[in-house]
Design brief:
- 51% of the residues lie in helices and 10% in strands.
- Helix 14 runs antiparallel to helix 15.
- The relative contact order is 0.06.
- It is built from 21 helices and nine strands.
- It is of the alpha+beta class and 416 residues long.
- The model has no long low-confidence stretch (mean pLDDT 93).
Amino acid sequence: MTDSLGQKPWMKTPAVTAVMDALEARGFSGCARFVGGCVRNSLLNRPIEDVDIATTLTPDQVTEALQEAGIRAVPTGVEHGTITAVADGQPFEITTLRRDVSTDGRRAVVAFTQDWAEDAQRRDFTLNAVYADRDGTLFDPTGRGIEDGRAGRIVFVGDAMTRIREDYLRILRFFRFQAWYGKGEADEKALAACKALKETLSGRPAERTAKELTKLLAAEEPRPALALMAKTGVLTAVLPCATDLAALNQLVEIETDQLFENDPILRLATLIPDDQIGAAQIAERLRLSNEVRDRLVAAMGKTPRITSWMSPRETRRGVYAIGLSAFNDRVKLAWAKSGRTSATHQWRGLLALAESWSPPTFPLTGEDVMASGVPKGPMVGQVLREVEDWWIDHDFIDDKFSAIEKLKAVAQGMAY
């Protein structure tokens, strides 16, 4: 009996239909098949994100086929056989069947082929080397991709050492797939190969390293995979500072128990130095975006000090000082690092209060200060800050008249 996904709804959308029709009009029926995540996730009844296509057509033929059909063709990786089609605003990576001619673990020189089995042999894992025709019929050249996928076995195609030497970041990809799709014990040959070649991860492209690590940390349950990374020495090869998983384990437990959204950036924060300078250095090393860097640095601040027993007044002051996002991050990190489960209601209370409180706007401006007699210049800011400190100490008193009276008192006491 032939294995089949059945014709999934995503296979019949206008955009997918247009792209496949264009390729088959240039080639023949069956010259293009779905591959990668869309097939894997459909096999496992998971949502799909991207639709990738493999084809016997050359990149030039793919481009011609798309242009003849009025579909935009973008040469995103012609040297590796990849053209991106854009239909109805949706991108589709279309890659010619290929085999490796040479590789240095970072870049590969490829030759195109008409052989689906040969193309499958250069893919990373067996569950990613399964192809699907337009009607959902599955084609499994390795003979075990379907079975491994359904069983949750992450197994390299052929020899694990060889596959890793073709692209050393497949080490991180292995643990990422183990976190997302793995079940039971991890493949011993794969683990041994990852451990033996872990030192090759140094010097790998920082952006790709960060991408794999972030995707792994976004898994619903990343802890077993991270424990394996730590056991094999892969984790410290990527993040030398990540020597203790206790806070990460506690954070995942908190997210699970409290139904918080999985937060890969906050999970990363549990693995890096607990100071702002160290966080900035890690962000630079991994070439993280400025937004992520700033978030990590803010999460590592020490003032105000976050504790489970903060009063409502202290909580409001904290939110006002550093903003809601940074305050929430610091609360969750402090909660994870406390190692205490008995204070759950207190930590939740801090988060609830922070979320429900809208920080008020300080009622005075520089013009108010100058109207009180303070001449234009640096003294205006100094007076304004002193009055604002008073206003905060009085729990953001909603009384502009009192603030003005305080301003007058401060201004009178200033020597201009």
